[in-house]
Structure formats: C-alpha cells, structure tokens
C-alpha cells in the first residue's frame, strides 16, 4: 500500500454502446500535486474522471483512494471518499441561491434553516481563505461564469474534498480569471490537496501541473513529469504524429466592403441587452476574427447576422440594407442575400442529427430549385450532390445514407462546411469551426477557410480559441459584454493584450 | 343576488374547488420534480371508483378512502416506471393512464355491480359527512360574519379542511425542508442533484407517489363527499383543469389555492345559472356547461404571462456525455 | 440509435412484442373479472374477421382510425401532441353535414369531394385555434386541445338540439341526407364478396387509403414534409435553416385537424347518413394508439388501424356474447397499447437491442471519435411536444 498516492486507477475500461471510451487505463496520482490530463476532444479524459467521481460506472477496473481499494458506485461514494469535481458544464441549479447550491445534498438535517446558517459561516471562511469572494445570497443565473465556477469549487470544499478534479476549467474564463484560478489551485495544492486538471490546452499544462498524463483515443499513452517534457513532445503524444501548429497563409488583399454593421443591438427574451451597439466592417478577401470569452455576445452577433435573432441597428451587405426587425427577417432571406453560416453548435443547429447525410446537405437550401420542384423534393438531386461534396471534402465514411449523428465531430463539421462553402456566398459566418473536432480535421478546416478568403470571400470568424483567432484572422476584434472593446492586427498584438481586452480592460483604463 | 345568495355561491365554490386544489397540489409535487402528469384525470377517476366501490362494500368511507388512494398509487407507480425508470414520454404515459382509468372503472364496475358502470348509492358512514365547526350555530345570527362562518366556512366534509391545510403544508415542505430543496432542484437540474450524491430516481419516485396520494384523496372526495357514489367519467376533465390551474399558479402553493378557488367559482356559477338571460338574449345551457373549459383556454391564453415551468420538466434524466 | 439492430426489428418485432404484452395484460384483466380470456379472444377474433359481416365492420372502424391515426402522426412529426382529434372529427362531422344538406346533390361522386373539403376545413379550423394559441400565446397545446374536445361536445349538443334538428322532432339529429349525398356501401360496390346490405363499410375506405398515400408523400417527399420533420427533430436547427416555427406549427396542426375532420365522411356520410350526437365515438383517441403503434408511418398507421378496427368490432361482439362484459374493455386494451408502445417502449427496446448487439459485436459503422447522442431512440424525442 502506497500512502503517497492519492489516487490509483487500474485497468479501467468503459464502453458506450459500440464506442470504447476508455481502454484499460491505469494511472497514479501523487498526493499534494497538480496532475494534468491532456488529450484531444473525445480522447476519453472526461469519461475517466466521471468514472472516478461515480457519475459513470466502469465496465471493469479498480479504484484505489489513499492506497485503499474503493468502490465508487455513485457520486455519494466519491464525495465520501473525499473527491470533488468541477464539471465542464456546471452542475448548478440556476434559480437557486449560491448558499442553496452549496448545501444541496450535504444538508445537516431535515430542516433547511440550521444548514443554511452553518453553511453561510463556513462559506465566509472558505471565501476568505482562498480569496474566492461570492455573494451567498446571489441567484446563480445572475452570476458570471467565473463566479459560477467558484461556487462549484466552494461546493467541493464545503464537502471537505481532498481531491479536486477540474474538467476544462478555463474554457469559460478570461486569461486573467484563469490566472486567478491557477493561483487558487496552487494554494490548495500547497495545503496538501490533490488537484487533477483536465485540459486540451498545452500552455496550461506547462504552466501549472507537476505531472502530466496524455490520453489518445481512449488509451493512456504516457505519464511524464511536466518539467521533463516539452509542448511539442506532448502534442505528438496526443495526436500520434507530428502536427502542424501553424497555418500557412499569404497576406490578405482586401477588396470592396461586403458587410457593414452599425450600432447593432439585441435584447434577449429575459430582457437583457446582449449586443450593445456593435459596429464593424468586413471586406472581400479578409477574415475578421472575433475573440472573446463565450457568452459575451458573439452568439447573438452570429444569430442576428444569420437571421434568427431580432434587433435594432443597421446591417448592410454589399451596400444594401437588410431588414432585421420585420417579419421578413429570417435565415432564408439572409441566404438569399449571399450570407452562409456555419453555426457554433452544429449538433443543435447546423445539422438534423437524425437526418441522413444527403438530407442534411440541402438543409437551409432546401427551397433551392435545384433541390425541389416547388412541391416535391428532388431526393435524387440531393443524393448526387451529397456524394459529390463528400468526395471533395473527404468526409469519412463517404456514405450519404448514414445519419448525421453517426459521423465523428470532424466529419459532421465537414458536411456543414461543404454545404455552406459550396453555395459560393459573399459572406461566410463561422462559429467555433473546430470545437469538438479532431486535429486532423482541424488542419483541413483551417485550410478551407484560408482558401475561401483567397477566393475573395468576406469571412466573420468567431472562436473562443485565441490560437485559432491569431492563426486565421487578418484583423481581430475583441468582444466583451456585448461590445467590441477594440480591433487589432494579429502581427501587432499578442495574447496578453487580447486577454486584457477580453476581460473588458482597455488601454485608457489600464 | 342577495348576501345569502353570495354566501351560498361561495360555499359551493369551495366545495367544487376542493378536488381541483388537491389535484393541483398533487401536480405541483410531480411537476416541481420534473415529471409532467396529464394523468391526474385518470388517477382521480380510478380513485373515485375504488373509494366508492369499497365504501359501499364495507360501509366505511375511511376504508374507501384508503382503497381510492391505493388505486391512485398503482397508476402513479405505472407513470413512475414509464417516465422515470424507462425514460418514456411522460405525456403519452399520462394519456395511457387516463384511458386505462376510463376503461377499467366501467369494466370492473359493471362486473361488480351491474349498474351500467355506476356504484350503488352511498349512505351514512359510507360517505363523508359534513362537519359543523364549533359555535357555528351560535354565531349564525351575527350579521355578515355569522353567515360567513356558519354557512361558508363551516359545514364541509373533513377532506375540504384537509385540502386547505395542505396548502401551507406544501409550501413549508417545498421551501423549508431538505426534501423540498432537493425536490425543487431535481425539477430544475437533475444533474446537479446527481453529482451532489443524491438519487434522482428516488426523489422523482417520491414526488410521483405523493402526487398519487393527493390525487387519490381528490378522487375519493368526488365520489364519497361531493357525490354519493361513482358515476362513469365523473372526473369530467377536472384533472386537466387542475393542470391549467397549476400553470396559472406558476407552480406555487398559495397561488394554487387562488387559482383553484377561481375555477371552483366558475363552476359554481355555471351550476347556479343553468339558464341565464344576458340583456334579453338567452344563454344556452350547453354554453354554461362548457364555460369552465372555455375559461380554462382563455386564462391559459390570456393571463398567464410568462410562466416559467420547472426547467427539467418533461425530460427524462439521462446522464449527459 | 437505430443502428443497434436491424430495421425490421425496429418496425415489426418491437411493436409486435408491445402488442403481445398489451394483450396479455388485457387477458389478465378479463380473468380478474371472472371471465375466460381465451374464450374472449376467440369471440374477439371470430367476431372481427371470421365472417364477411365481421370484416365489413372491422374495415369500417379501421377507416375511422386511419384518418385519426394519420392526424396524430402528422402532428407527431412536427413534435406536436394533438389530443384534440375527438373534437376536430366532431366538427368535421358538422362540415360534412352542412355540405350534404346544403345542395340537392345529384350524385355521390360530386357530393363526396365537396364533403371531403367541408370536413377537412371544419376539422382544420377547430385545430387552428389551439395551434394559434400555442404559437402566439404560449398555451400548452395538449391542454387546449383537450379543452377543445369538451367545448366541441357541448357545441354539437347545442347545435343539434336547437339549430340543426328536424323541426318537430325530439331527437337531436339532422334530417337524413338525400340519395345523392349518401355513399355507396361495400355491398353495392362488391356484391360478390358477400357483405350484407347493412354493412357500414363504404367508399370512404378508399379515401382513407388515398390519405395514407398522400401523407406518405407529404412527409417524405414534399418540401413541407422535409420542413415539418426538421422542425420536429430540432427547433433551433429549423430556425437556423430559415424554417418558421409559427408556419410549421400552424400548417401541421391544420393538416392534422383536417385529417381528423375527414373521418366524418365515413361516420356521418357513409354510415349514419345524418349528423347524430357524437358520431366520433372515441375514434379521435384511438388515433393516438394507432399513430404510436404505427410509428407515425402511413403504412404502420394503416396496419395498426386495421388491428384496432378488428378490436372494436370484436369488442362489440364480445359485449353481445359475454355477459357482464362492456365496450369499455376496448378502452382498456387501447390504453395498454398506448402504454406499452408509447411510454414503456424502452422496456422492450433495451433488451432487444442488447440481444442484437451481443449477436454482432462488430459494428458496421466506423467508430465515431466524438461521443454519440445520449440514450433513448430518436422517436422519443419526436413526440415530445
């Protein structure tokens, strides 16, 4: 029995239907360290940690906590064993207060009053100890994501967790907030707590972890000391081959103005102003990248440009003003104006997951005369078109009869991209082009975007991945709280400056 | 209408509101936990039949009440198995339960009593009797307050007072106890409850069973207190009206009391004025009969505003990946 | 996931197991009230398909259920749960009767198309109100359609008792339709089969078959069907593609209501030849069971409607031949079919899927690198309004 190990997993396997998410995984995590787990999307990191937290049950394998073999059939057992987890998608009750969320499941008795009073005191202490200031009476949905994340950490600490698992915690944070989080994590480690950090960002691994394990396609490929490795080596371990981290492109040659946006405002159905006066211009043959932490209005910008949010202001495409308030304002009319849209969430919006590939290939363009005769759809025309596009975009498997849900994330994205690019639009809106996409497909998608720009299209790229924005954009606009904080040229800026803008801090204030 | 007429109208409103209130609170527990229940109607009907049938056999309304609750619990358990364990569609399960109750009550009723689906007339101890509150007769002559106490508040069956008492009890359970906190949480975000180490399935079954008990009381009230025996289809859409009242009440106990009293008043008005002349134009009786249903539609369409139902309502809980 | 098992298992095997379970439990109920379930089953089968007489009624009922089943199915495809078939069919009856009584129809071949239009329009309008209230006022369509059933019942009583009845007559029904507005029945068209002259089966059956084909084209071949299904699968995706939820909800409900209304040509024009109180007789509700069992596919609906037609006719025989048995037994079976095929579907599906999965461990589709959608099968989501 090794007392210095906080966690040991032996031979963990887990399958979801035909998908083997974890294959015979063994890992040891030393007490009082920050242990990173890195891997591509779908490598099985989150599944492994969800097993450790009792959210899923492993098909086979053993778990040792503090050297002792432990059964974890449910989350209660994990909590009892001193494990806390901060999921990527927070598990908070949105219309409860912070205090109610913290005590949920860890109440002291049948009545709430004493539990709430005790929790209030303890929360105050924890907040002071770890500089995590949160109003205990605030309603969760009124808090920013950074604050919500703190509530999740406080929840774990309230349950006296010794081992804290964080799944992609910085995805929703500004660089400054991420730094603050890392300070908190280091503080916890120095107190003897064990931290497991799941991420796909190499920089974070290098910056904060003591040890790092690499996962690929459900398998654990290596565990190394962070000090003894390099980002290049980790990247290779993640992907299994050398990867191109840069995108080759020539300088842009912008042409005529394609998109002009003036004082664009959108109010959502909870009466919150999501866009607070956006102005921007995109010319033919250039990529305008929108950087920002998610939830700062980028989605609403794409939605109103794409035709399915209403707002006020002026949008002009090729000099012609577009109706954005009237009943004629919908995605159909936008497409007719030469706007194509690769949405942020392809599974919810861009594709009908139960439709076959050939049905999806005309989705949004189904009233094109090529695909229908007014009343009937030309199914055979759709199928021919689909076979053709699948070949040119290297969609695998090239089977037009397969339902969209049965393709991998990368191939789903290629189907959407093929559909939107091939319409020869004047303006292409792209949201999170590589979210949930494997590295091989990322390269392909990036090349396609650059090629499209070189053909003289105007492209609006929205991404929360700063690396992606830096690599693809000809100009970068940073959004914060529904506004554009500033515009920069990629050659004349750096991640630090952009990070400040993403947090809403401009030069004048700084 | 004079003062006494108003009192009588209110008295009958309260009587008619009681089954709605019980069913509405039943639905409140279920829907707050994230399980939609359009099977309230069927559970009420089943309970009405079994309470009347057993009361008529045993001569005891209390045993009848237990039987009614039991029948309602069986249907609630089916709804639980379908929508919680097997993650089926909750609306479809509810529809099935309604038809099952419609069919079974008549099939079994005919087999047992051969009265065309009715149960025998209930008398004496086989029915809930009216309770006279203390001093009701003594204070009757006090102007205004006297009749309000003696004729409106007093003289109802015990179940009316149970229903009224359940309003603060429901409020207290939901907002002041650990169970209530967890119940509300599981209707908003079951994943939060699951990751906090509490059983989603257990909580939802508890809610569905509480719903079964309350609809059971509602059904028994229909057959053994409001009427004296079971008649085919006697729930007459009350389960659905209770659901409309629940939406109108925005899933809150005190509002539920107000909403069901309103619907009770509408029904009482419809009963009182079977034929009515409005400015010389005779209003057909069928219109008065349809009034509660029409007003349900009108209220749902016009006055609800933006009611936010429990966010996980109607969705079976599947761990996300 | 459909991929876990072959298609035939999904559309044939599982509904059959569900049906068998429903019948088994119904048998228990029959035994429970002291009757012999095997005898009941014999009477049921013999009464429904054992004679030309039985077939005449079975197909007549099936005609009703095809219309109402298609009605529910079309709404399901748009993820709408239309429980208002009962009221929509009643109003359809009003439309059909008004058409039949308004003109001196020279021949049924002229009266039928007009009655089809009349029935559809009235049924559609009765569905339009709940649909409109859902899209514009946020009223829950399930509750409003149920309320509209009650309101329709009261309205029809009023109209028949006060407006439409024959002056001087006490019975709440219209005058009998004239010769040119009565539909020829099966005994006239197919004299050699041996249907009795009183058989209610009539040319409406052919209209029902045409409706099946029409709905098939609507859902799987037309642009509107493409949009209806897309909207039913995912509302955000529909918005992204420029498909208007308001338009689809309205159209789907209008078509659904129209199909329910069509039922009246069979019940009102074909059988009663006058408008009587409650010509629908619960057929609107049977449509729910039929659509669920038929997996919202016109062919499935057709087969399920035949089955329920047999059940209704056999059930009617049962009440004649078995003492103490009531018509409501059919309602019990119907409820159990809805329960097993609709709500408890996963109870049967999961073990069957596992069986097929263990049979062939080797998946045909390549391993996706991103996770698939979580549990349940696509039909689950399809019918959540």
Automatic annotation (TrEMBL), chain A:
Span of the signal peptide: none
Gene Ontology annotations for the cellular component aspect, listed alphabetically: plasma membrane
Main localization of the protein described in the UniProt heading: membrane
CDD domains: ABC_Carb_Monos_I, ABC_Carb_Monos_II
PROSITE patterns: ABC_TRANSPORTER_1, ABC_TRANSPORTER_2
Domain ABC transporter intervals: 7-242, 259-506
Molecular-function annotations in GO: ATP binding; ATP hydrolysis activity
Pfam families xref list: ABC_tran
Compartmental location: Cell membrane
InterPro entries to which the protein is assigned, alphabetical: AAA+_ATPase, ABC_carbohydrate_import_ATPase, ABC_transporter-like_ATP-bd, ABC_transporter-like_CS, P-loop_NTPase
Membrane topology field: Peripheral membrane protein
Protein keywords: ATP-binding, Cell membrane, Membrane, Nucleotide-binding, Repeat, Sugar transport, Translocase, Transport
Superkingdom of this protein's organism: Bacteria
Stored PANTHER family: CARBOHYDRATE TRANSPORT ATP-BINDING PROTEIN MG119-RELATED, GUANOSINE IMPORT ATP-BINDING PROTEIN NUPO
Family of this protein: Belongs to the ABC transporter superfamily.
Protein name: Nucleoside ABC transporter ATP-binding protein
Organism placement in taxonomy: Bacteria, Pseudomonadati, Pseudomonadota, Alphaproteobacteria, Rhodobacterales
From TrEMBL, chain B:
Keyword Cell membrane: yes
Annotated GO CC locations: plasma membrane
Membrane spanning stretches: 12-30, 65-84, 91-113, 158-175, 205-231, 251-269, 290-308
Bilayer topology term: Multi-pass membrane protein
Keywords for this protein: Cell membrane, Membrane, Transmembrane, Transmembrane helix
Entries under Pfam families matching the protein: BPD_transp_2 (PF02653)
Primary location group: membrane
Location in the cell: Cell membrane
Record bears the keyword Transmembrane helix: yes
Molecular-function GO term, any one: transmembrane transporter activity
Protein's UniProt name: Nucleoside ABC transporter membrane protein
Organism: Jannaschia helgolandensis
Native organism taxonomy: Bacteria, Pseudomonadati, Pseudomonadota, Alphaproteobacteria, Rhodobacterales
UniProtKB/TrEMBL annotation, chain C:
Pfam families: BPD_transp_2
Region of interest called Disordered, as start-end residue ranges on this chain: 359-385
GO cellular component: plasma membrane
Lineage: superkingdom: Bacteria
InterPro entries per record: ABC_transp_permease (IPR001851)
Membrane disposition: Multi-pass membrane protein
Principal subcellular localisation of the protein: membrane
Transmembrane as UniProt keyword: yes
Subcellular location: Cell membrane
UniProt entry keywords in alphabetical sequence: Cell membrane, Membrane, Transmembrane, Transmembrane helix
Transmembrane segments: 12-34, 54-76, 83-103, 109-129, 141-161, 201-219, 299-316, 328-348
UniProt entry tagged with the keyword Zinc-finger: no
Sample GO molecular function, one term: transmembrane transporter activity
Protein name: Nucleoside ABC transporter membrane protein
Species in which this protein is naturally found: Jannaschia helgolandensis
